[in-house]
Amino acid sequence: MFSTLIYFLVALIIYATSELFDGNDPASAAGWLESLVLAVVFFLICRLNFKRLSSSRTRPGNVNLDRAVSSAISRLSVLALMLFGVNLYVFRLNTVFSHVRLFQIIPTLEALLFLGLFVLYLIMIWDAAYPVQKPWFSRPVTRRQYIVSQLSFSLPALLPWLCLSLCVDLIGLIPYPPLKQALIHPAGEIAMIVLFMAGIAVFGPVLIKTVWQCRPLENGHTRSRIEAVCHLAGLRYADILVWDLFAGTMMTAGVMGLVGRFRYILVTPALLRSLDDDELAAVILHETGHVHHRHMLWYLIFFAGFIACNIMWYEPLMLLVLAAVALIPVSFFPETIVFQVHSILMGAAFISVFIVYFRYVFGFFMRHFERQADLFLYRFFPDAFPLIRTFYKIAAGSRQDMERPNWHHFSIGQRIRFLEKCQENKALIMEYHRRVRLMTAVALVGLASVCVLGYHLTYGQLKPGFENFIAGRLVFEQLKMNPENADLQVAAGDYHYARQNYSAAVGFYETAVYQTPDHVHALNNLAWLLATCPQTDLQDPERALDLAGRAVVLAPQSPFVLDTYAEALFVNHRIAEAVAAAKKALDLSRDRRDYYQDQVRRFQKYL
Length: 607
Hints:
607 residues; 4 domains; four-stranded mixed sheet; mainly alpha; 2% strand; Zincin-like
């Protein structure tokens, strides 16, 4: 089920990146029809997959069937993401409502509408999987309860995005420009993210318990036992809730909330029915261990850090995608779908980073945090046998393989064996805690370093060099495919000029002038270089004046062309004419006026 959280977030990335690059091809009737056909085909694929599993010789609870069903759900969920991407990237369904006024004002509503399409695909999977998984539940679970439980468990993953996105939309409606400008700044963006992540972490549990339809555990022996354990462990909480996940048949527990006033302990009816007092106490101590070691705070830091890194790396990643597209031969895809290629590559880049981070980095810490929470039991119990018995009961009750791999938990067998090792050698407990502290410190330093590097690439000292490098890669790759393009020759000359490789710059400018004799930028840039080049052997004042004069004839109202012409006149000792040209450039300029004024003053000194 935790994998579904990632599927939802990947779907959100697909939607967001589908609108990164503008295109002029809105969804057509054919696109709608093709999308409908894909949905029908996907529905049939889901049915056939689980029908084959239900007719197999494996019995419910069989290890092979358990793995086969989980594998089928994963494969079909990935296929659903691919179809969702096809609908947005290829069929361009997200352009259907682009002119609806409400969606222009509050874009989050349009995003929710299209995320509903992905939800529809998931419902097809769950609907097909229900007959196979139905016999596994210890009590009757209706199809509706099964689907609602799957959906409600995953929806809170979108809660931070939803709140933040809606807030940004609403701020956009406020007629106060200073506030909007402050939020555009990277410091403002990060501050807003931190504020909202903190708000979600503190108040989110109140909303989540409503979405999950949790109810307070009634007074009695069980509640008294849980309250006694919480009091013993010093755990502050708002309430103890019954979590009717899959009609109460799933054996699990949880704790959510950073602040005691908004912290809730969750237990399922199946868990309460199956455990004795010591086993229930062991489970509550495990959940208390998460609070004691501040695991939820670390999750918040890792998540907020990931978002901050995305903000810092957004523009560099965009430039890298553009550079990657430039490497693809022009004939490889029609020019009309270049923007789609950009969107797909950008989406693939974000999704790859997201999956690697959450599946492997975040998942790594989730596994070790769970094991660390297991060890909290030893603070109050002389041994771990109550928790070990609980693990065996959970494995039997859920009919799952005890060695089944899991990206966010160590397998039940691994957790049991580790507890048994700690039972034999208690020194392993403190050693493990030190190991986890070291790992989190290294991760925090690494996350901060990546964020700082992204900041310097986007806003700091590394930005000019990085952009120049990417621009050069783009220009030279395009030149290989289109060497007759004078614009690219000029861009290549500019690249070498910025790197002070003046002889190479002259070569590219000369080629551009030769290919297109009336190319204003080529004439102007070559003239400037021949007039002002620090390498005296490359200077040619007479040719510079000739080139600048030709450029002025072609663009007599262009300030930068007049400025070059003035410079060429100046190096040819025609000072009065240089001053006149510089004054005309100043009169026509709308920006950089300080520069043009300095030029006039510089020339006037030699009158």
